[in-house]
Amino acid sequence: MKKLINDPEKVVHEMLEGMVLAHLNLLKRLQGTTVLVRNETPARAKVALVSGGGSGHEPSHAGFVGKGMLDGAVAGEVFTSPTPDQVFEAIKAVDRGQGVLLIIKNYSGDIMNFEMAAELAEAEGISVKQVVVNDDAAVEDSTYTTGRRGIAGTVFVHKIAGALAEQGASLEDVHRVASKVINNVRSMGMALSPCTVPAAGKPGFEIGENEMEIGMGIHGEPGIQRAEMASADEIAVTLVSHILDDLKLASGDRVAVMINGLGATPLMELYIINKKVAEILNEKEIRVHDTFVGEYMTSLEMAGCSVTLLKLDDELTELLEAPAHTVAWKKE
Amino acid sequence: MKKLINDPEKVVHEMLEGMVLAHLNLLKRLQGTTVLVRNETPARAKVALVSGGGSGHEPSHAGFVGKGMLDGAVAGEVFTSPTPDQVFEAIKAVDRGQGVLLIIKNYSGDIMNFEMAAELAEAEGISVKQVVVNDDAAVEDSTYTTGRRGIAGTVFVHKIAGALAEQGASLEDVHRVASKVINNVRSMGMALSPCTVPAAGKPGFEIGENEMEIGMGIHGEPGIQRAEMASADEIAVTLVSHILDDLKLASGDRVAVMINGLGATPLMELYIINKKVAEILNEKEIRVHDTFVGEYMTSLEMAGCSVTLLKLDDELTELLEAPAHTVAWKKE
What we know:
Two copies of one chain form a homodimer.
Chain A: H1 11-22, E1 27-29, E2 35-38, E3 48-55, E4 72-78, H2 84-94, E5 100-105, H3 108-123, E6 128-133, H4 154-166, H5 171-184, E7 185-191, E8 211-214, E9 225-228, H6 232-247, E10 254-261, H7 267-283, E11 287-294, E12 304-312, H8 314-320, E13 324-325, E14 330-331
Parallel strand pairs in A: 3-4, 3-5, 5-6, 10-11
Antiparallel strand pairs in A: 1-2, 2-4, 7-8, 7-12, 8-9, 10-12, 13-14
Helix pairs in contact in A: 2-3, 4-5, 6-7
């Protein structure tokens, strides 16, 4: 294992410190916790959004804390759910009396711990609602999940629910729009290489020199097929076909596209994938409103990518385009 | 070689297509060329900035084309200088009668080809000036370079010279400020793994399971030391020490910091490096004005990082903070 780290047990702490030091104008750490919150107080009381999960998916989630997106992000150990007390600290810190929406990726540990935190918060009189993101079109159940996994589509939930909250909407309304995004978003990924959790010290799985895993999860969970390596175009066709089947998009529909790198994939390759994705959508007369290419939901240094499509209506389009000022999503 | 590509000979073409399709509002391709230019015409005639070089360093350079930064970027084949005719096309396309500044990284091929293009443009009555970026503090001469190499510090030249050009400054003045940035910026990198040029099909060098290369160039050129793997803190100390020696920073100086990932390095690790870099600078009472952590000047899927320090004065600070609207640098 070759990594730019000091102590495998301290990677999350040191990452959070380095992140706050880099972005003092945007982020601050709640002392003694693994919670990062906005460093400015929103101009008026608003519904607050909290997300989080295991570390190793950076810039998710702290990279999306800021105006127009999240109010707080809770970091667990690498690929490990944060504990309920950490989530509870985040909820208490960001609540402005308008309630808190928890955005949870669909992993059993995350759901259990975020729900326990919600109960603790409700007991202190804080209104809490939650949504569970399950955008992975690859498999129905998986290693750490009942039902579909939550992956890169989560970032669209942050963006759109965050924009509505910033406009002063109620907790019910922010919950409604977050649920709408979840209904309208699907993703699918593939991996060329594994990644190594620092505390484990060795790769999470093995894969041959000419193999790839289609439908791989962001913690290395098995996908739907261990296949021979294919071309970028063939891979794009496979991923998009699964998503289109699931989302039932039709000619004339509008989408936002995300081509997400898992950690070790050059931007060059992500753009080559995007070329084919755009061509497929164009052939089907599905209109691409906007495209996001880069690292949004990574798996440490895994090589591979995921494709996400979000079906847009007028409300989602307007909120997607609303201003955001975070480390990893900036929009004027 | 496992890569998300179709044909090793077509990676640059397909990447440029995929990039334009993703960012139609920002970029367009000059037909039949490897040149990307802004898709909006600047509101008034201004000095135009052109950069470029071999591909494989994305988001450099097309990711920095847009308001407040570059007007055009010329892409060569992977790790290969673009030809003079391509650079000449870029110059002709972006010139608005106020002259063109070429921002060249210090590689012999780039300098030769950009200079030939400049001569072709001058012959057609276009005023052209150029700067050569040589920020790499690691080695004096190198495989493809006489003098220091140009690496991630180039992005600060794009940002600051681009901001001054956007304000309507003369070609002489934009050239002056670009030269000032070059005098004030130093970088140094290190690599944990090699990368594979698609057309070559195999890694550019070999490195042991417990080795790293200190001072590695962005094309895999040898650095100053093949050393045993060290901790993130030790690596940060080594890189920053070389830069500080070279830049002669003193207590009270102000800097901008860039922690640049070479392609396969998780953000987590870059933030851990940043933590130590910030601590070192704080100890020396060097004030960090702003910090940029992410992928700015990559080497395909090489693992490793570079650290860049830019010494700021009031003019450079103001221009660094000026608005920019590009794929990879957004500032309100």
